[in-house]
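dumping this here before i forget
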Amino acid sequence: MGDPVQTEEETRNDLLEAQKTVSKTESISARQVSQKVAKSASQIQQQGKGTSSASAIRTYSKLYRAGEYDKAIELLKSLIKKDNPCALYLMADMYFRGLGVKRDTKQAFLLFERSALLDYSKAQAKVAYHYLAGTGTNKNLDKAHNWALKSAVQGDEG
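structure:
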């Protein structure tokens, strides 16, 4: 049998618990990133993507923590087809880190940018970083500044 359906309050509590572990991705290991990405599920709900996507992100997080990157990527693909900004961000991170896929900073940048264009603040911060560092794209300080500003206006502290 499958997992019982969670109530909205149980889902919110799961997301809040996961959110407590959030820290900067550049200073933590790949396994710890899954704890950070759980925060993204709450942002999906706020964007009206529904609990189905949030549930998929939680499942992704469990697979990621278990090191089952291939399964995690397969789960993200269906969300990416729907232009889910969080899924795009997570897949970009997989490419950037080379987890379950060959490391490809250009593909990572393109996915981060696609997510950023959907107003996902964490992706906007990543796009700013990539323009600043010239990782996966040409260095462009003006674009870095603009993306960092967009992210900050939305409240991202990254």
